Amino acid sequence: MAKHYPFLDLGKVNAPYAVALKDACARVIDSGRYIGGTEVEEFERELSGLVGTRHAVGVASGLDALRLTLSAWIELGRLSPGDEVIVPANTYFASVLAVSTAGLRPVPVDADASTHNIDTSLLERAMTPRTRAVMPVHLYGRPAWDSRIADFASANGLLVIEDVAQAIGASLADGRCCGALGDAGCFSFYPTKNVGALGDAGAVTTDDAELADMLRSLRNYGSGGKAYYFDHLGANSRLDPIQAAMIRVKLAYTGHENDGRREIAATYDAEIANPLVLKPEPGPDRHVYHQYVITTPWRDELRGYLLSRGVETLVHYPCPPHRQNCYPDLARYSMPVAERLANEVVSLPISPACTSVDDAREIAAIINEFRI
Ligand SMILES: *Cc1c(COP(=O)(O)O)cnc(C)c1O
User: Fold this and answer.
1) Could you tell me the distance, in angstroms and rounded to a whole number, from the CA of residue 279 to the centre of ligand 1?
2) Mean pLDDT within 109-113
3) What pLDDT is recorded for position 1?
């Protein structure tokens, strides 16, 4: 029987934490407090400590973290409906969906062919008189940040909303954490993320007390705190205390989990040597490898070959947001790099719970035998 290399097995990811997770769950059950309360407050304190911001606000998902942050800025008068938000063309759909469902207009900017993140040399060209914000997405766990995006945002007075869904624990060479670089950092704890809950969960980090207060209101229908009185048209997007308790168990091991991913990535970096395949370029920052993504023009052939050798792979993502059926308004944009990446990317197994360094070495050897 040929060996099998699974992409991801969430049971295995959580097995080392199972006893602590069950204890934490029992703690919530016994507390009698099933909305808000100390689990959510302690989680918020721990996340803001990890990221290095003054505040963190737990919400129901990563999508809501993004959407409610943008809505909060509208409520605070810092954005107006119809304003434009610059987004990367190469991102997960939810980044862009958050912008349009908040009543704002996403304007895509093409990807850098080497980092797959937003090409910061193209930002100026996307500016219009309606541009009010920019959303760097730290895709695959690689910080999407440089002096160009920082200077661009401050020179034009733009709000910066970071999509940190894939990059908890990622940081710049100077030590600053993703989620503390812009005006707000939006996290997802979807079960497959580097730190995953056992269901849906999200959070926003910020130094801005006004934004944090507005988010606390919007996640609770728009209530100002006085029971049954509402100041804003909010949402029901409270972070479930059971999920807060689950995340708290795992948050303490963020660095450990990311180090495991980085070790597998370093093995792929060192061992994959096939001229048909391009590896991600290591950059100066701390990349946390939510995905390890290689590219090849023979993507489908490579995936079929790898599967025949027992190696499961995935594609993140096969169709960019501006090419989705739900976005006819974005169809006029041509984003050649993002469109090419959608046809060429392959994600290799990277979860340290499912893939050992020896497995990574074997997978690299299998890739090196790929021919067309
Ligand atoms: C997962 C993800 C989201 C959405 O998070 P959910 O918790 O699934 O709503 C947003 N942006 C990116 C880049 C993601 O990977």
Assistant:
1) 24
2) 98
3) 64
What pLDDT is recorded for position 312?
A: 98
**Cα 161 from Cα 179, distance rounded (Å):** 9
Q: How far is the CA of 305 from the centre of ligand 1 (A)?
A: 30
* 8-state DSSP, 229: -
d(CA 353, CA 366): 21
* pLDDT given for residue 319 in this prediction: 98
CATH number attached to the domain at 11-109+117-251: 3.40.640.10
* Pocket of ligand 1 contains residue 117 by CB under 6 Å: no
Assign a CATH topology to domain 254-368.
Answer: Aspartate Aminotransferase, domain 1 (3.90.1150)
Mean pLDDT of 94-107: 98
Check pLDDT > 90 for residue 2: no
Residue in 230, 227, 166, 214 with CA at minimum distance from that of residue 68: 214
Is the CB of 95 inside a 6 Å radius of any atom of ligand 1?
yes
Average pLDDT, the chain: 98
Token output for 227: 């029971």
**Ligand 1 within 6 A of 145 CB?**
no
Numbered ranges of CATH 3.90.1150.10 in the chain: 254-368
- Whether pTM > 0.85 for this model: the answer is yes
Q: Cα of 121 to ligand 1 centre, how many Å?
A: 25
